[in-house]
Amino acid sequence: xxxxxxxxxxxxxxxxxxxxxxxxxxxxxxxxxxxxxxxxxxxxxxxxxxxxxxxxxxxxxxxxxxxxxxxxxxxxxxxxxxxxxxxxxxxxxxxxxxxxxxxxxxxxxxxxxxxxxxxxxxxxxxxxxxxxxxxxxxxxxxxxxxx
Length: 147
Description:
By secondary structure, this protein is an alpha+beta fold. The protein has a single domain (2-141), classed as Alpha-Beta Complex (Spore Coat Polysaccharide Biosynthesis Protein SpsA, Chain A). Helix content is 25%, strand content 27%. The protein has helices at 2-7, 30-40, 104-111, 130-141, and strands at residues 17-20, 24-26, 44-49, 57-61, 64-69, 79-86, 115-119, 124-126. The chain has a 4-stranded mixed sheet. Strands 2-8 form a two-stranded antiparallel sheet. The longest helix has 12 residues, at 130-141. It is globular. It starts with a helix and ends in a 6-residue tail after the last helix. The model has no long low-confidence stretch (mean pLDDT 87).
């Protein structure tokens, strides 16, 4: 459990720390993420990204297609990109080893207005499926992750 793993590190975390899930590749500017976190003075700063769109869109009027548009990441909403700056007091909100960080701790922090979103417009790609792996291999081969 993501929360439980973090809770086990409590004795080592006595100042602002960084965390990532480790299942994605991004060119997030870590210095800018940390500066944003310190300026906003929140317990958690997550990196918000727009996921690569998987499908094109069509507009239907009655039985007729009015337009077809290729996939575009701007069609998607913001998601948690998995790169964080956090304050040690977050760990006090993790009850035990069986807690998902994204559930109770993050929901409570959001309710307390203690999560800020650092919007990242650069490269980001998760690696959850074979398709994602192939996309990442292609991006690395063609250096698409470099701004």
